[in-house]
Amino acid sequence: MSDMRLIVAGAGGRMGRALVRAIGESKGAVLAGALEMPGSELLGKDAGVLAGLPANGIKLSADLWAMSKEADGILDFTVPAATIANVAIAAERGIVHVVGTTGLSGSDNAVIKSVTNRAVVVQSGNMSLGVNLLAAVVKRVAKALDQNFDIEIVETHHRMKVDAPSGTALMLGQAAASGRGVTLDEHSERGRDGITGARRPGNIGFASLRGGTVAGDHSVTFLGPFERLTLTHQAEDRMLFAHGALKAALWAHGKKPGHYSMADVLGLSDI
Ligand SMILES: NC(=O)C1=CN([C@@H]2O[C@H](COP(=O)(O)OP(=O)(O)OC[C@H]3O[C@@H](n4cnc5c(N)ncnc54)[C@H](OP(=O)(O)O)[C@@H]3O)[C@@H](O)[C@H]2O)C=CC1
Ligand SMILES: O=C(O)C1=N[C@H](C(=O)O)C[C@H](O)C1
To answer: Which EC number(s) does UniProt give (predicted)?
Structure first.
């Protein structure tokens, strides 16, 4: 099979630059386009140079429809509004859409799901093997422990992160809720401040720390009578996520339409 031709959305961003590097180092994929926000001062700049590589001749553009004519997939780590705009174009073009953007609302997620009867979408709040294994373990542990164990999720990220809780924290919360057989929407406690009252039994708590250059730390603690169990993942570099996204795109190339997760890509869905 010929190399998969990939577009990087948000090519001037932190993940975008990491994705351009990952594609540059890869076997089986080539960079076919670099998307940036309309009006961005980076439009027209070379994607390779921005990523710290030699020039590759792919200039940043805001025109996804034009650049996707000769592409097989798009790696999208941007902002919710951009991802939602990209969903329709990727589906119309019939290209694989890997969605890593977090901070999406319930209605954003409904829009993404609405195209998956005709389009291939791989979506995950975290593209790393370790976090997806952690989610499987959290689900199992939550199932084994009763409501005498409170569940608290703590995440730490770099000072530039704009959404909280992180997509990964919410994914781990979903895993814990599913292990317990409850819905996260009805059992989460977020942003405690002031006279909060006692903890509601069965709730899953979230806390977010921001600072420095942390790529992404997540821990899930089960707090029971006289004992605590903490499961932790620490991402050391965002290239971890870029390699995961590339793996997802190559896996999805040629798959039938559907809404896939990173657990599907990694063969962890049945754990
Ligand atoms: N699922 C996972 O494994 C991971 C997910 N993420 C998520 O990815 C997202 C991006 O993170 P990060 O790279 O750190 O953020 P950045 O802010 O560095 O990058 C986002 C980029 O998207 C660009 N952008 C904004 N609007 C558009 C548009 N309409 N079209 C094209 N590009 C646009 C921004 O441009 P401008 O700066 O001009 O606004 C910016 O260059 C976040 O939601 C983050 O949580 C991050 C790491 C891993
Ligand atoms: O914004 C980030 O940086 C990250 N975002 C993702 C999230 O919200 O969980 C994944 C990773 O933790 C890095």
So the answer is: 1.17.1.8
